[in-house]
Amino acid sequence: FFKQKTAYEIYQCDWSSDVCSSDLQKEIEHYGAQIDVREVGRVLEVGDGIAQVYGLSSVMAGEMVEFPSGVIGLAFNLEENSVGIIILGDYLGINEGDEVRSTGKLLSVQVGDAMLGRVVDPLGNPLDGKGPIASNKRRNVEVIATGVSERQPVCEPLQTGIKAIDAMTPVGRGQRELIIGDRKTGKTAIAIDAIINQKTSDVKCFYVAVGQKESTVAGVIEKLQESGAMDYTTVVVAGASAPAPLQYIAPYSGTAMAEEIMFNGGHALVVYDDLSKQAVAYRELSLLMRRPPGREAFPGDVFYCHSRLLERSAKLSDELGGGSITSLPIIETLEGEVSAYIPTNVISITDGQIYLQPELFFAGIKPAMNAGISVSRVGGAAQIKAMKKVAGGLRLDLAAFRELEAFAQMGTELDPETQGRLDRGYRMVELLKQGQYVPLDVVDEVLVIYAGTRGHLDKVPVDKVHDWEAKFITFMQDQKSEVRGELEEKMDLDDELAEKIDASIAEFHSQYGGSSDSGSAQAVAEPEAVAV
Length: 532
Prior knowledge:
Distance between the termini: 86 Å
Largest sheet: 8 strands, mixed
Shape: elongated
């Protein structure tokens, strides 16, 4: 009442008048006591994305604080006389002496179906120019992972659409499969193909770009839009120009969005591209906060930084809805150094790794997966029965082929049986090559690998293998749809179905020019002519 009056009006007010009395009476009757108690501190120093604040004696670890400019900070270091705050935004507008208010809340992010098809920053703010996100649901960015009793073993395949991976290092729903290799060896390409391949499944995808060039991220988004994958994908971007605190929390934000899908009985796939840059951002923050450095100057808890993130990927028990989060973390190595600190940490956390070798990549073998080092610790539990039967010995066959190839390079004369095994190995290597953005259906993968491992390609020239494969898939889809449909329905391979496939391949060979009619002498390529 008094705030609405000037001092002169109050002095001139006739307190005996009914008007003034009634106004005062009305204010007294409708007065509600609302006490807003917040702790307030002062900025001691600020710079490089962090601030030291004095006066927030009751602040919690991980609690959000608010600066006068509206920027949010996160309590990172609780020290004796001050609090170390990491600033989640532009720190240039914060000055020494500014007031800092605690919020009493943990950091949270918007979640829900409204996030699908959007490009957001780690705080959930849209970056795609499509307006605000219509979602009232929020989840804490940092939560404790589900316990052992709330999980079940990985038992359901997640098809990546990449022949070499689905055959030799299969990925299951709820699994964490590391993609590791030097820069420019096709790590992101594998992850994007896996996202595109979920178009016909019920899996929602989250691509978290940490420290990537924004032009690269824009290219990825464009490819996802062209293939129709953005309809079920959320892209979380903390680019190379983003402050280190945003790069640090980006993977946790993406996981929180995926957990909303998982805890509602759905399935999610999360790609972290890449965790090496997140570790570097965490190291930067820790060193600025004067935390003791350890190996390679990383803080001692960098393992916990990654383990508490990746442990949130799980296959929930049927009582909790059976939802899942599948993780494809990416780690970049330097000069193939797999035994470095961060790579060994993440390898020990994950359920297998896909190692991409630069020598294979530059030789034209894409994906450049080294079958000897790459492994899936879930194994056959993440494969359909048909794939398990046709690709069971493929890894050992390729390993034996590599040894045989090294022996053959010595110029020793080989017997016909050894030469035949060598020739089949060249054809299998060629068969497992796959272009980018063209994932295959798992039924087509089974048919193609079946033809290769059973020797149906032995007389096809090596440079004609890809042409043979494309025409064979079209032939099975168009002319032998009943055989392909039976395999798709059973997802298993019995003797009767195998005979039908053999007959179909024989019929295809009779139509396909330049296969068995070309003659074995002409068909067999010299080892020097093939890049392996």
